[in-house]
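Help needed: design a sequence for this.
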């Protein structure tokens, strides 16, 4: 019996070239195992991470760009979580969208803006969850990972998985791995983290996309030669982790 899987994919986007980036997303998704239910891609991967290009690449959600992501999902039978600059009511958000063959199922807006992002984006105001065939998923973006209270909102919402998209720099690579593992352990859930690799606009990114299990262990991770990682989602592993580390129950009964 084939068990469902989740995946993290990484690549080096071309800044401002939406067509090239969508083509790369399509290629990576097509190469994933058939059992993958959804794949997570990096922060602002549709446009590349460069805040100076936000005005020229912003897009409505749903809109023409997410329609094309929807086509990839339909052709591969894999749902996609991708980052893009969302235009809405005169504002721009650093957003993460969950797209299935039926269209956009959820949109998350980054709550904690890093550095000069605050000069270009409006901050989001709360958590976003989405129901999937393998459990409830909560969405986070990059710097959000540093704030345990943001992940806690997903524990309180009974999420089984947290999907994190990032543009994490090489100089903070240790923090990236540590925080993904910590959020998996302290919320007793799977964390699937996708990060940029390569260089964009002078930023050297860490790559190191990974999947952490509900005991905080790394189940799968990308390497220099393999830009994708996938792992099974096991309900028994979640149950066992929550018995051994009953933080969810203790919070509610404390």
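Sure. Designed sequence:
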């Amino acid at each position: 019996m084939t068990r469902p899987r989740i995946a993290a994919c990484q690549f080096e986007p071309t800044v401002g070239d939406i067509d090239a980036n969508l083509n790369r997303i399509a290629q990576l998704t097509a190469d994933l195992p058939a059992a993958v239910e959804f794949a997570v891609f990096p922060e602002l991967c549709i446009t590349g991470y460069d805040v100076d290009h936000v005005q020229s690449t912003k897009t409505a959600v749903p809109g023409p760009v997410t329609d094309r992501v929807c086509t990839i999902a339909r052709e591969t039978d894999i749902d996609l979580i991708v980052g893009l600059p969302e235009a809405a009511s005169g504002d721009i958000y650093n957003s993460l969208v969950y797209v299935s063959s039926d269209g956009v199922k959820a949109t998350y807006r980054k709550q904690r803006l890093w550095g000069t992002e605050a000069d270009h984006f409006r901050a989001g105001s709360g958590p976003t969850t989405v129901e999937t065939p393998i459990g409830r998923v909560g969405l986070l973006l990059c710097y959000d990972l540093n704030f345990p209270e943001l992940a806690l909102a997903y524990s309180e919402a009974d999420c089984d998985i947290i999907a994190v998209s990032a543009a994490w720099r090489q100089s903070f690579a240790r923090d990236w791995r540590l925080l993904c593992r910590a959020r998996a352990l302290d919320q007793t859930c799977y964390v699937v983290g996708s990060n940029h690799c390569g260089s964009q606009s002078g930023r050297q990114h860490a790559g190191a996309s990974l999947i952490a299990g509900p005991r905080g262990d790394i189940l799968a991770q990308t390497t220099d030669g393999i830009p994708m990682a996938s792992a099974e989602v096991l309900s028994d592993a979640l149950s066992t982790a929550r018995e051994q580390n009953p933080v969810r129950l203790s919070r509610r009964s404390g």
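The longest strand covers residues 79-88.
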